[in-house]
Amino acid sequence: MPHNLKIRKLPLYIFCVMILIGFNNCKQKAREDIAADTKIPMYETAEFKQFYDAFSTDSVYQMEHIIFPLEGARRLIDSLDKADPDFRWQKENWVLHKQYDDMNGTFSREMLDLSGSIIIERISDNSGKYSMERRFGKLSSGWHLIYYKEMGMY
């Protein structure tokens, strides 16, 4: 009879073990959710900072990390000027970009991380009248400039 009692309690033991495993999985999922919420933006990682610094200071590196013809927009000349939806920047007339300079607080920069593979950089003057935008994409060959809207009134 004691042997039969052990066999009857076996399903209860298995049930208890399954409950404990379930609770442990819930705790692990909660920890992962918290870690995802506290994940640092890609533009603050060493990988992107290294790319951004090289892009801003090394002209050869910059040219190698732009996808030409580059999608984007030229600044509008006046209120009668219209944006060309098919405009593309060409390698032959590219003006090299330099390091960000806030011009003694006249400009500010905003960085946005879209899913870790696209970073949008927006620079604007304090009045909000003038702005520019660059988009960097992480491709199989590393980070590249994939879009550029020239500084202008928009």
Percent of residues in helices comes to 25-40%
Structural class: alpha+beta
Rg from Cα: 27 Å
Please tell me the total number of domains.
2
Tell me, briefly, the overall form. Answer: elongated
At the first level of CATH, the class of the largest domain is Alpha Beta
Order of helices and strands: HHHEEEEEE
* DSSP, total strands: 6
* Biggest sheet: strand arrangement: 2-1-6-5-4-3
Distance from first to last alpha carbon: 87 Å
How much β-strand is present in the residues? Answer: 25-35%
Low-confidence stretches: none
Mean pLDDT: 84
- Give the second-level CATH assignment, the architecture of the largest domain: Roll
CATH topology tier name of the largest domain = Nuclear Transport Factor 2, Chain: A
How many helices? The count is: 3
Strand count, sense and barrel status of the largest sheet are: 6 strands, mixed
Describe this protein with a few key phrases.
154 residues, alpha+beta, 3 helices, 6 strands, elongated
Plain-language structure description:
- The chain has 154 residues and is an alpha+beta fold.
- It folds into two domains: 1-39; 42-153, Nuclear Transport Factor 2, Chain: A (Roll).
- It is built from three helices and six strands; from the N terminus they run H-H-H-E-E-E-E-E-E.
- A six-stranded mixed beta sheet has the order 2-1-6-5-4-3.
- A hairpin with a 4-residue loop joins strand 4 and strand 5 (130-139).
- The model has no long low-confidence stretch (mean pLDDT 84).
